[in-house]
Design goal:
flat; alpha+beta
Length: 162
């Protein structure tokens, strides 16, 4: 009768073997590709000719690409890193020019706590408008509006005062 790898690990730990010895005997699971945390499936777009993190992001990218072909937007870019504050930056799914203005656009299938922190930071120090297309339909736009406290902190930092 065969036992599972997890059971074998438990028996070996009880026998006093170290993690390194167990990995040497059983091997590690690093050969297996990691499963996506939120069950998204990487999707290739034949229209654009590149991979996207999910099917929803792929479909939305194709919509933006069609808008660019129609002349409604220009300079469409994917996975742009945006510096927010000091060394803090975030990667935004799409950026493009609309009516002469730079727009950052994100496709979200699921709200996560790290993303929630990024949105709050964007609303304080973001460079420009940030649009979010949610998979469930409710779209939102975040406009940066720094608080007086943040402005004071940034000015003190720039002026070298404590």
């Amino acid at each position: 009768m065969a036992i599972s790898k997890d059971d074998a690990r438990q028996y070996m730990k009880r026998a006093g073997k170290t993690s390194k010895q167990i990995d040497a005997d059983l091997g590690t699971d690093q050969d297996q590709p990691a499963k996506p945390k939120y069950h998204n499936v990487r999707t290739y777009s034949d229209i654009i000719g590149r991979n996207f993190h999910s099917g929803g992001e792929c479909r939305f990218a194709e919509v933006l690409w069609a808008m660019q072909q129609a002349g409604e937007i220009s300079d469409l870019k994917f996975q742009q890193s945006v510096k927010l504050l000091g060394i803090v930056s975030m990667v935004v799914d799409f950026s493009y020019i609309e009516n002469g203005e730079l727009i950052y656009h994100e496709f979200k299938g699921l709200r996560t706590s790290p993303w929630g922190m990024q949105v709050r930071l964007w609303s304080l120090v973001g460079p420009t408008e940030y649009r979010v297309k949610h998979m469930r339909g409710c779209d939102e736009v975040i406009f940066p509006k720094p608080s007086p406290e943040l402005i004071r902190i940034v000015l003190e930092h720039l002026l070298g005062e404590t």
